[in-house]
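ZP: hey, is the zinc ion complex queued? I don't see it on the tracker
AM: it wasn't, my bad. submitting now with these inputs:
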Amino acid sequence: MLDKMDLHTHTIMSGHAYSTRNEMIKAAEEKGLEIYAITEHAPAMPGSCHNMYFMNYKALPRTYNNMTVLYGVELNILDYAGRVDLPKSLLKEMDLTLASIHVPCYVSGTMEENTNAYVEAMKNPYINIIAHPDDGRFPINYEMLVKAAKEYHVILEVNNASLAPGSFRGDPREQYKEMLQLCMDYEVPIVMNSDAHVEAQVGEHGFAQEVLDLAGFPEELVVNYHREILKEYINRGTLL
Ligand SMILES: [Zn+2]
Ligand SMILES: [Zn+2]
């Protein structure tokens, strides 16, 4: 089936990414994507955007030729209570939102504490996707993660950058094997995202696809193939 979307990318505004919005959008069009999202790092990430940047997304067009461009954020989960670094009043206005755990913004706890951080974050009604829940430095209980994703209506990500050689997060293939089996058992959808920090990475999902193929993961649970699934999960599904 056709991989139509990439929902996790960063522009130069994220502080440690290297291409402009126009360069990223052009790359997404060249890849033939139908839905492309820019999801800058939230303010707790050193060098990233101020709240005002996210508040003014309404200024940006959502259509480029045949492609829908969505604007959102990759939130930082800050603690074991699952707090994030932007208020709900701002999140609900964004097209889509991701939340993840990052080294400079979170101190790893026990498996129970880390799992709790994700589960509590997913209770936030405006968080749509958990990004890269694959980091061996932050061990979690995958069954609890997947069950919470089902209960709180959140998509789980298979992150291509995590799987690339030299990833900061180590090799997460074992974690994904376990997570994908549970997603099949509980029928929880996943999305393949590039997490591109430069235009050459936009739409690149080769490593993620390999992991799905190896798991025998069913196409009907892969959001990249189904615009109608995405529509049900994001804050502003009306844009699709
Ligand atoms: Zn991230
Ligand atoms: Zn990212």
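AM: back. The chain has a mean pLDDT of 97.
ZP: great, adding it to the tracker
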